[in-house]
Design a protein that fits this description.
two-stranded antiparallel sheet, 19 helices, Na+/H+ antiporter like fold, homodimer, about 0% strand
Chain lengths: ~400, ~400
Amino acid sequence: MPFAFLMHDPLAGTLMLLALLWLSAKVGGELAMRLKLPSVTGELAVGLALATLHRAWSAFPDVAASPATELLGGLGVVVLMFAVGLESTVPQMLKVGLASLRVAVIGVVLPMAAGLAGAWLLLPQGSPFMLDLFIAACLCATSIGISAQVLREKGASDSLEGRIIVGAAVVDDVLGLLVLVAVSGMVAAASGAVAGPGLMNTLALALGFLVVAFTLGRLVTPYLFSLASRLRGEEVLLPLGLGFAFLLAWLGNLAGLASIVGAYAAGLILEPAHIEDLERRERRTLEELVHPLVTVLSPLFFVLMGAKVDPAALFKPATLGFAALLAVLGVAGKYLAGFGGGKGTRAAVVGWGMVPRGEVGLIFVAAGAQLRLNGAPLLSAEVQAGVIGTLLITTVAGPVGLGWVLRGRRRS
Amino acid sequence: MPFAFLMHDPLAGTLMLLALLWLSAKVGGELAMRLKLPSVTGELAVGLALATLHRAWSAFPDVAASPATELLGGLGVVVLMFAVGLESTVPQMLKVGLASLRVAVIGVVLPMAAGLAGAWLLLPQGSPFMLDLFIAACLCATSIGISAQVLREKGASDSLEGRIIVGAAVVDDVLGLLVLVAVSGMVAAASGAVAGPGLMNTLALALGFLVVAFTLGRLVTPYLFSLASRLRGEEVLLPLGLGFAFLLAWLGNLAGLASIVGAYAAGLILEPAHIEDLERRERRTLEELVHPLVTVLSPLFFVLMGAKVDPAALFKPATLGFAALLAVLGVAGKYLAGFGGGKGTRAAVVGWGMVPRGEVGLIFVAAGAQLRLNGAPLLSAEVQAGVIGTLLITTVAGPVGLGWVLRGRRRS
């Protein structure tokens, strides 16, 4: 058909893929819920299943390689964290600040120590200490997106525990960045390469962004949105609110933080009082307007995360054993960190909330895969698969544990 | 900074670009509204301005070349047409069916005749007749996205005129496809190339899709969504509704129609009765849930359309003259077609609603640019720029005229 191209929309394939992803995400979420698991775990499993289907039958679309799902899923987690931020205010976060700080610091120190011990135990003798150190560093990250979604699902986003978890995740992002820079710097130094940016510079930049956002940002925002409320258009609030979130996500990323930290900060800064004129005119709150976007985009993120796992590399006995042991250490370290936030159930909720490693850990592995020690790559393919397996186990264990303690608490 | 990549999110640039686009789209829309123009015209102008900025200062991001805005804008117009479809039902559309058919047929025949006359007048003597024919064909298309947005803005989407316009645009899409296939086939035949798919095949496929969607689709849909209402999840309606729309958009595109026709058909088919269980449980109607998506995505589409125009090719006196004369003929042809839908103001509303050519015309030009007659390209660069100029003028004239008659009607 020489004219087949005439009306062929290059978007058509993407439309089909998105329809498939939404349908399968919802079915997966439903199955998980019937098994009394958070629906996120079902969405992760669906992603893994779709990727396996593609490997088995190459005509099946490759979810993990689609730039469209990559983009939409990435936007999904940014919008999700903005929505979580909107549910709290800066003063509420300051109240839990000390608890979050304790949780974050314990949640970096303990998994690091446990990871070092585990790597020393599991790796063949004579492995470089730098490798132990890097594996331990991978256990420090916290992927807040998953816990945020579970907390939302259970209506606990604006609970005290929810705030401690998210606050700790922000601190964790700063600490994780430092650990990554420090370890990478040590590897580079051991190889005799030039040193990277100083630890102090990195820290100053990241903290500087947060301080400026929460001081200057809070002063300027009411003024910006009172300007915006003079616009006569009917559909102004959501595009401008999202624009604000994306701007801060971008700036945060320039300062070395994950984009989601900036988006979360934007949500915290924006308070109902700043936008009440616009909300009244559009007869919807910003939270209500953002909600459908989260509903549509965040399942794509979780399915995509599942789809990025290589089942062939994962399902080898040796890899699984390595991953399982490391995961137990990682879960234990983060779980104990929960006691930095309180006692009893509260400690359990916070601890489980810190367990998922997800995409932040994957960024670590990707960074590590590029490091070379004395000319040889630092991470072998087996170690990479093992660490990815660890991340996957924690990523599924986190929401399962969190859903379990939240359900138990509600019943009691 | 050797570690700058460590935390650099590849999405960050896109986040910044989207923030910029939303902010500038809203400012452009505001300016247009203060000039008593529909805000779409302001968004188109903003796109043109951003593209000009990029050409003048290459450090400025290239909006038109960003795959992210291309994707999001494309999704935007699909979601917009789904939302428009949701506002009407199939029986309501059947009531205006005959009027829509008349408007569409006149709206293809008159601009075609006017275009032939205009091209014969404007092009140098000895130009091939095929070229006249192709230029005339470019004047037949109707880009419904823009009129749909103006009608929504003025609260007239579910008016009788609104339905006639959208119905005529669907018929127009089928007719436009036929004209395009016929003209391309004639060019190919004149060059001695193999003939394309028969006209009859193309017609049968496109009509077949519409007939199956409106008969079988209407029978199956209630059953599908009653299955969906058994899902226990809280956030099911929007992903599944959008999935349904995207699926029909994809199928429609396979049948040779524009994706937006399929998405519109999905909205028509889905009736409140099918989803009332889900709507009750989620305490929102599907229309309310889709609305924020339209708010966020459709401005990206209009800014992108503006950004795709090459100001350097457009702002030449010869091109402008050619474009202006052709545009007058094109506007007149479509305006007169409005009388197929009624008399007086109704004719004016329908006529102006059919005026914008927009992206459908651009698809025609892109298709024509690939055609060769006796070895030489059919469309020279000047003719291409002239036709694109024509499209641009109609695309701005349409919403301006439509806004003007709708305001006049409300006042009287």
